């Protein structure tokens, strides 16, 4: 992993994060979520969501940059689902050229560290399952359709 910069984004970063997330989704989620969803969801909608997240207090966000290019983003905060509450890893994305570099490990450590936490991951995403298992997460038997894509997500906890 090259020398990267890690920082909390500001509102001006919402477009770049949205574009980055869109690219990550289109690279990583082919065959995981319906293609029509991937094709129809772009940076405009995501920019609004990221702007709300940056301005809000419900989650913390860190971006990783290589020069002026975002190569990773992580967000986390308090979460709850039925009787489960606590720290939730809400998103973790790294660029394709950073996969295997240790950046995802670094972002996970910078966000939730080794704390007890939960997260949602697409059922059809074995790469993500393996990554989170290496960090002590395990499926807890809870699954449901993702409200946006309709693809099944499972909850993992540690």
Structure description:
The protein is α+β, with helices and mostly antiparallel strands and 158 residues long. It has helices at residues 14-28, 35-40, 43-55, 103-111, 126-134; strands at 5-7, 60-66, 69-81, 84-94, 118-122, 138-145, 152-157. The model has no long low-confidence stretch (mean pLDDT 95).
Helix and strand topology:
Blueprint (H helix, E strand, L loop, with lengths): L4 E3 L6 H15 L6 H6 L2 H13 L4 E7 L2 E13 L2 E11 L8 H9 L6 E5 L3 H9 L3 E8 L6 E6 L1
Parallel strand pairs: 4-5
Antiparallel strand pairs: 1-2, 2-3, 3-4, 5-7, 6-7
Helix pairs in contact: 1-3
Put the structure in a nutshell.
The protein has 5 helices and 7 strands, in the order βαααβββαβαββ. It has 158 residues and is an alpha+beta fold.
Q: What is the CATH class name of the domain at 5-113?
A: Alpha Beta
Task: Tell me, briefly, the overall form.
Answer: globular
Strand element count = 7
CATH fourth-tier homologous superfamily of the domain at 5-113: Gcn5-related N-acetyltransferase (GNAT)
Percentage beta strand: 25-35%
Largest sheet: 7 strands, mixed
What descriptive keywords fit this protein?
158 residues, alpha+beta, Aminopeptidase, seven-stranded mixed beta sheet, 7 strands
């Amino acid at each position: 992993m090259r020398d990267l910069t890690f920082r909390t984004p500001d509102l001006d970063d919402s477009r770049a994060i949205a574009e980055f997330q869109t690219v990550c989704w289109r690279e990583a989620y082919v065959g995981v979520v319906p293609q029509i969803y991937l094709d129809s969801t772009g940076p405009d909608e995501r920019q609004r969501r990221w702007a709300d997240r940056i301005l809000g207090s419900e989650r913390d966000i860190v971006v990783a940059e290589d020069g002026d290019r975002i190569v990773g983003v992580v967000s986390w905060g308090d979460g709850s689902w039925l009787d489960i509450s606590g720290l939730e890893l809400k998103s973790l994305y790294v660029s394709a050229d950073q996969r295997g570099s240790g950046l995802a490990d670094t972002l996970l450590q910078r966000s939730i560290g080794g704390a007890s936490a939960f997260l949602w991951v697409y059922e059809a995403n074995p790469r993500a399952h393996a990554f989170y298992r290496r960090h002590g997460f395990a499926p807890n038997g809870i699954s449901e359709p993702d409200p946006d894509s309709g693809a099944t997500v499972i909850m993992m906890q540690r």
